[in-house]
Amino acid sequence: MPDIGSRFLGLKPVPDFVVLDAATGSLTAGELVDLAQSTPIGLGPKDLVGLRFACPANLARALFLLDGLVGGMVLLPASLTDDQVAALAQRIGITAVIDAVPGAKPLPAVAPRALTRWALTTSGTTGSPKVVDYTFAVLARSIRKRRPGRPPGVWGLMLDPTRFAGSQVLLQSLLGGGRLVSPDFNAQLGERVSHLVGGGCTYLTATPSLWRRMLMTPDIGQLPLQRLQLVGEIADQSLLSALTRRFPHARIVHVYGSTEAGQGFGVDDGRAGFPLCMLDRLPPDLQMKVVDGILWVRPEAAPTGEGVLYDAEGYICTADRVRIEGDRVFFLGRASTAVNVGGTKVQPEEVEAVLRDHPAVAECRVSARPSALLGALLVAEVVAGPAAPSDLPLALKRFCRERLPRAAQPATITLVAAIATTGAGKLARGPAV
Predict the structure, then answer these.
(1) How far is CA 337 from CA 40, 274, 322, 376, in A?
(2) What is the domain-level CATH number for residue 89?
(3) C-alpha–C-alpha distance, residues 282 and 295, integer Å
(4) What is d(CA 51, CA 40) in angstroms, rounded to the nearest whole number?
(5) Residue 381 is part of which domain span?
(6) For FRET with 127, which of 6, 110, 249, 311 sits at 20 to 30 Å CA-CA?
(7) Calpha distance 255→265 (Å, rounded)
(8) Starting at the edge strand that comes first in sequence, how are the strands of the sheet with 251-258 ordered?
(9) Is 174 part of any domain?
């Protein structure tokens, strides 16, 4: 199995070409080639190494240096606390946690290569993060190589590269023959978008929650996007339509995938959900089925580890609830976020999609509040758009009554200035009631 270094060397890059331009440091193709031809000091095939880097350039350096030479690498999000890292290290047997690129020496001409285990953590949207293992081949299955003669694409990094979706952007840009522009993750969102504009970003991947926030920044229309991707959450019709209006010449793709199941499939027809025919007509490397309203997938090569549930046929349970309507399959939300309201299961994500259809709603979050009578009630937080009426909560209650069954109508609607997101860029949600 070719290692990450040899895959990069096969691209024959220009040595001084900047492949990663981050606010915290840059990285050239020549540096990556040197790293791929080196071996780390003090680490070897028996080590499971935790990589804890705030700088994407240093994370990339460590990946190219260690892959094929250590037993495994665990990409640790910066959002994890020291106690969480220590508990994780003890649980899965991490032998070293590094936050600086180790020293290296030239790689011997003939050296044994390890099939390095790659490990990522789940986003932990509704609970503690779990660890999922990959081989490099599985993680890089969707990488598209740049066609000869075409200029390199410029990828924007708005997602944590230690998470599944962010790692896909990092590997695609470095191994696909492109360039990566990475704004400072600690900067204000408007500043990060401006950084992407200055870097000439043409390809950008973000969660729907992050796209909604970016659409409200002043420089968003200046991005010369050729392709934009939505990952990690449900892409509802209101957002897809808004992105189409803002970027009429860009290809807009809702990519379905998860840490537990790996890379899935993409839909680019501008409609929420995906065509029903895809359940039977996907390529051989990915098969799907719906069982009791839950989507199951069977990729040709799949990750393993905590939280990966297989059936007897090798299908992985995604825990994503779906509904089939006519020739379309719609995502409803995670099974773990469903709320029991008086004996009726309600998916908060469905209620959020209805609220976002109102022209005065910029963003919203629906959650559960315990109720002695019904078990739980739904409550909504709403970020108002620029032309919102003063009686927006009352208007939204009327709006919901016309479109939702009684159990799914929020009991209270509160206006807020902003809604928190997780380190993975998703709406922060608590456990279902």
Answers:
(1) 44, 21, 13, 13
(2) 3.40.50.980
(3) 14
(4) 14
(5) 338-415
(6) 311
(7) 6
(8) 25-28, 18-22, 179-182, 154-157, 203-206, 227-230, 251-258, 262-267
(9) no
